[in-house]
TrEMBL record:
Keywords: Hydrolase, Magnesium, Manganese, Metal-binding. Pfam families: NUDIX. One of its GO terms (molecular function) is coenzyme A diphosphatase activity. Belongs to the Nudix hydrolase family. The lineage of its organism: Bacteria, Thermotogati, Thermotogota, Thermotogae, Thermotogales. InterPro entries: CoAse, Nudix_hydrolase, NUDIX_hydrolase-like_dom_sf, NUDIX_hydrolase_CS, NUDIX_hydrolase_dom. PROSITE patterns: NUDIX, NUDIX_BOX. It comes from the Bacteria. The keyword 4Fe-4S does not apply. The keyword Protein biosynthesis does not apply. This is NUDIX hydrolase. SUPFAM superfamilies: Nudix.
Length: 181
């Protein structure tokens, strides 16, 4: 699926092992260091989103997919990223962490994501660049730009805080799984 406009496309695997989600703590050597996430990354030329998600799963935590469980709806972020999440069953008995990308992994029962610990809103505001041609639009500098609000979820598990897009995907995974039971 391609969207009109300039976007960066990413894919993530939501690894599930015995009704638990497998999370990783990102290493200090990569973008968003020490954040909690699912295995994932940029979709490379010629790859499908699912192929990219599986590749990233293997690269980051060294496990293969036992079986694909379900697709999760793509997420379009306010910062020009499109993320394709896929829930997959994994066997972590052969876990092999790529220490350059991943500091550690941990498990959280899926039902933990039924209700966020906390939610907060972030305002999304359009802010035209200095060279924006205001003279070409009705109202000029007084144009009534639309604003939006982006809800951010937070979950606590032991000493970990799972938040943002990762929390949103975990919550959606719980919604889908709980409706299939």
């Amino acid at each position: 699926m391609k969207l009109l406009g300039q976007f960066n496309y990413y894919a993530v695997c939501v690894p599930i092992y015995k009704n638990q989600l497998v999370f990783e703590v990102r290493s200090q050597y990569i973008a968003q260091p020490l954040e909690i996430s699912f295995p994932g990354g940029r979709i490379e030329e010629g790859e499908t989103p699912y192929e990219a998600a599986v590749r990233e799963l293997r690269e980051e935590i060294g496990v293969d997919v036992v079986r694909k469980l379900f697709d999760i709806e793509p997420i379009v972020t306010p910062f020009n990223s499109v993320i394709f999440p896929y829930a997959v069953e994994v066997d972590i008995s052969k876990l092999k962490i790529n220490n350059f990308e991943v500091l550690e992994t941990f498990l959280v029962p899926i039902e933990h994501f039924s209700k966020p610990y906390k939610t907060a809103n972030v305002d999304v505001i359009l802010s035209p660049n200095e060279d924006f041609p205001y003279e070409l639009i009705p109202g000029g500098r007084n144009y009534p730009w639309k604003r939006g609000t982006y809800e951010v979820m937070f979950y606590k598990w032991e000493d970990y805080i799972i938040w943002g897009i990762t929390a949103r995907i975990a919550h959606r995974t719980w919604e889908i799984v709980s409706n299939k039971l």
